Amino acid sequence: MEQESFLTGYVQDSRVRLAMQRGGVTYALDEAAIPSFEWLMVNIQAHDLLPRLDSALRDPLPADARLTLRGLLNRQPVWAAGVTYKISEEARERESHNSTVYTRVYAAKRPEVFWKSIGYEAVSSDDFVGIRADAVWSVPEPELTVVFNARREVIGFTIGNDMSSRDIEGENPLYLPQAKVYDESCALGPRILLRPNADTWLDASIHIRIERAGSVAFEGRTGTDRLNRTLPELTDYLGRCKTFPYGVLLMTGTGVVPSDAFTLAAGDVIRIRIDPIGELVNTVRTVGHGD
Q1: Nearest alpha-carbon partner for 72 in 22, 132, 146, 122
Q2: 288: left (phi over 0), alpha (psi -120 to 50) or beta
Q3: Confidence at 13, pLDDT banded by 50, 70, 90
Q4: What distance in Å separates the CA atoms of residue 239 and residue 230, rounded to the nearest whole number?
Q5: Same domain, 32 and 127
Q6: Concatenated DSSP letters of 125-147
Q7: 231 and 111, same structural domain?
Q8: Domain CATH code at residue 218
């Protein structure tokens, strides 16, 4: 069986540098051959990605090297698709007092896609994620995330956490940007599973566990087989009238929704696992200020 390949970053001399993982070993990449993640996204076509990375492999890194996508991503925007799972449609309808907006989106030909973050603001594994100080109902949203190069070719998949304020979005759908886009609201990583030119979803289980004071406060699971949209469909609408000169990442929606009585609290630890990508781990803290 062919070994999976991953792209990630490692911290050295206060800088995040490119690395590639294969067979449990992490290799530094030659910066003369591949100067940055952004350069890779702009200059290398998907069909040539793995050969170019293989040719740039250098020394193995220590087993305890800190791996992260934070600092690796830069001018790549992060977009998100909403209401792509049935459970998400049902939850959005409840929080919006049965407005029917989300039911119509779930069944519509045109999907919901919206801007979430810019790469340099996204956090990665072992970083903090934020909950708004002026929100009272905050949840994580574990999502398979697609990585595209500047040609909108699929490079691979990573793990995303689309932090959300359900009370703010539920008050009025036009408040969605405030519910979704704020400091530390977007987490990605810790590595990218390389699947150049993929045109179908990664067949994967998505598992989330939220720990509070040493106990499990919530646990849930879904699978990409429950996605209501295809990968080509979302790719098409994402790029119909928008170019991405540095590449783009797309979160694909959540199929795990905690009960309406649950809200995150500062100090909670969120663990999202999608095999074979790995686990994205973040601790929650409050950001901003209230009324």
Answers
A1: 122
A2: left
A3: confident
A4: 15
A5: no
A6: TTSEEEEETT-S-EE--EEEEEE
A7: yes
A8: 3.90.850.10
